[in-house]
Amino acid sequence: MSGRDPHTPPAEVATTRRKRHGLVIVNTGEGKGKTTAALGVIFRAWGRDFRIRMFQFIKHTGATFGEHRAAMRLDIPIEALGDGFTWLSKDMDRTQALAVEQWGRCKEAILEGEEDIIVLDEFTYAMHYGWVPVDDVVDTLGQRPARMHVIITGRYAPQELIDCADLVTEMRMIKHPYREQGIRAQQGIEF
Ligand code: ATP
Ligand code: MG
Fold first, then answer.
1. I need a surface site. Which of 14, 19, 31, 70 has the fewest CB within 10 A?
2. What's the whole-model pTM score?
3. Distance CA 153, CA 119 (A)
4. Any atom of ligand 1 within 6 Å of the Cβ of 35
5. What is the Cα–Cα distance from 149 to 166, expressed in whole angstroms?
6. Could you tell me if the CB of 179 is within 6 A of ligand 1?
7. pLDDT digits (tens, 9 = 90+) for 106-128
8. pLDDT tens digits for 155-173?
């Protein structure tokens, strides 16, 4: 243990922070890897002592997937607020209300500007289904500190979000073990 106050960045980080150009990064498309790629960036950013916060939409509040377990050990806050929505969801009003509430928290964090990197996982659906106005998101992103990176993941990224982003990647499915072989999600690979 270094004994360093976790909120006081070392000199090296303070220097890079001055040079930093905060990016809006969107991982979209129908292929696997959108959330994984965001977690990969978090891993890298953690190695740079960045202040990190990840908000998850849709995923069950209190989910304990591999990433949540790792994040606990690395002291990275992952805040999930959702009911595990699928197209079979019975209570869409609740799914929507949770997404709207979660966006409120994200907006607050973005505008407070304390973090170096904020991830909004599976957030595109809230915009796609019209629960959260894209204008509000674009406007909020425009008000964030210039050094803050924001990563948004999920399918069906709306065009207005793509237009305002700096880095957009579309994951394309070529093969998926479930589709080809009926192999279900694997621990450590998908959750
Ligand atoms: P990951 O979290 O593994 O990076 P992702 O964020 O790109 O995946 P999501 O759209 O969030 O993908 O999908 C969640 C899960 O659905 C993933 O575990 C993924 O493997 C699975 N999935 C994606 N495409 C298919 C498919 N065609 N058939 C079955 N499952 C799929
Ligand atoms: Mg995902």
1. 19
2. 0.89
3. 8
4. yes
5. 10
6. yes
7. 999 999 999 999 999 999 999 99
8. 999 999 999 999 999 999 9
76 CA distance to ligand 1 centroid (A)? 23
CA-proximal residue: ligand 1, atom 16 (nearest): 32
CA 156 to chain centre: 15
Q: Cβ distance 98 to 81 under 8 Å?
A: yes
Other CB atoms within 10 Å distance of the CB of residue 13: 16
Choice from 25, 27, 32, 179 to test ligand 1 binding pocket (greatest atom count within 8 A of CB): 32
- What six digits make up the tokens of 21? 């150009």
Locate tokens 């991830």: which residue? 119
Q: Tell me the CA end-to-end span of the chain in Å, nearest whole number.
A: 30
Cβ 156 under 6 angstroms from ligand 1: no
> In which residue are the tokens 């979660």 written?
102
- Say which ligand is closest to the CA of 27: 1
C-alpha–C-alpha distance, residues 110 and 18, integer Å: 18
Q: Is 132 helix (H, G, I), strand (E, B) or coil?
A: coil
| Long-range contact pairs involving 81-85 (C-beta distance under 8 Å, separation at least 24) | 81/55, 81/56, 81/57, 81/105, 82/56, 82/57, 82/58, 82/122, 84/58, 84/59, 84/60, 85/58, 85/125
